[in-house]
Amino acid sequence: MCKDFNNENEKVIRCCICERNITSEDKYCFKLSGEKFICSECIEEISFYKIVVEETIKRKFQQENYNEDYYTEDRDEQKEIVTFTFDKKAVYKEAIKSIKGRDDLIKSILSILKINLECTNPMLKTNILVIGGTGQGKTFIFDKLLSILGVPYYITSSTSYTEEGYVGASVTEMLKVLIEKANGDISVAERGVIVIDEFDKLRTKSDYGKDVSGEGVQNALLGMLSGEEIAIRDEYGNVEEIIDTKYITFILLGAFEGRCKEESLKYIRDERIKKGNDRLIGFSSKNIKQDEYLEKRYIAKDLEEYGMSRQDIGRIGMIFELQDFTYEEYLDILVSSKSSIENAYIEYFREHEIELVIPEYTNNEIVNHAIMLNTGARGLKEAFLEVIEPALEILDDESVKGKKRCIVFPKKGTKLNYKME
């Protein structure tokens, strides 16, 4: 019998759905707020749909509240840990054909990557931070090294991302791309490498209000740098994949400069050294003189004062600093590198059946100009193009037919700086 019927027997009670009169014959009814009721027939009719809706909500809840402890064991039992191995000497020999002036860095990076790619204990994996000014070859180095190794990798910029829930890409997008680089094989992607350039652009800017592209992104990266399992979601928020980041190598790059000299990381470090604050983190300096060690190393306090998250800093195992190229290294990059702009133009002229000859004194002038530009190895291209540009007109000049040699001289004013032979 309807529970509320007797209390309302002086009134005509109608179902708010079918508008049928509810009587004492009804097995039950449901009272809504106020004077609204639902009869037993309508309740039975919608019960089936209620069950379907509840099951759908339940499944969605399970997806959104993924229980790591519940799923991890099954996942590990079902999949084999993927590892990569390589010949460090062979990779080094190939790498230095293109990467000049960074021999010691290449050796150190390859040693770390070898462990990261081969280990089956996540405690052995090391994330890397590389500090160097513009034009020092940070992204170039890792693009070349990782392409030689043949592992799935993705080079991206920190400025492409915003905090979850704001306009812009979420940091999990980089994991999606890494999976694509691994041809959709998550197990292979879980041994990949993610290189995040302009990491220093994530410095906290508290004077600008809520910092969704700085501190917010640093916080979002923490789970990945810590090696957690990360849910990859589709555009509707549903979980598509779960990727384990404990074996993914994260390489962070940045110039760590500021709007003025006093805001640069180098200035912060130098000031700390002057004040004698010599508390160190990371590897022991037992066999190194303290002053010498401090001159070469950044510590957590420097990065934190610059505006980086203390939690993120704690997930970085090794910090490398790129020094400016020497004159000889600039010359080596210009003349000997497999990827040099000069060699690329020599080959281009050869395709037009002309031998491009650039004498040593011309190369010296190009290097001097590049150093003056103060943009690192990037300045070599600008300086070289300024010298070679007048000679490009001969490629379509009918009057030089039969001449097979073009000698380029340093550019001086408007005077022609090449000769055909």
Structural class: alpha/beta
Major sheet summary line: 5 strands, parallel
Number of strands: 12
Strand content: 5-15%
Overall residue-averaged pLDDT value: 80
* End-to-end Cα distance: 112 Å
Global morphology: elongated
Poorly predicted residue ranges: 3-10, 51-77, 280-290
Task: Give, in order, the helices and strands.
Answer: EEHHHHEHEHHEHEEEHHHHEHHEHHEE
Estimate the helix proportion, in percent: 40-55%
Biggest β-sheet: strands ordered side by side in the sheet: 4-5-8-3-9
Number of DSSP helical runs: 16
Radius of gyration: 33 Å
Describe this structure in words.
This protein has about 425 residues and is α/β, with parallel strands linked by helices. About 40% of the residues lie in helices and about 10% in strands. It has helices at about 40-65, 70-80, 90-95, 105-120, 140-150, 170-180, 185-190, 215-225, 265-275, 290-295, 300-305, 310-315, 325-335, 340-350, 360-375, 380-390; strands spanning about 30, 35-40, 130, 155, 195, 230-235, 240-245, 250-255, 320, 355, 405-410, 420. A hairpin with a 5-residue loop joins strand 6 and strand 7. Helix 3 (about 90-95) packs across helix 5 and helix 13 crosses helix 15. The longest helix is centred in the first third of the chain and has 25 residues, at about 40-65. The protein is elongated. It starts with about 30 loop residues before the first strand and ends with a strand. Residues about 5-10, about 50-75 and about 280-290 have low confidence and may be disordered.
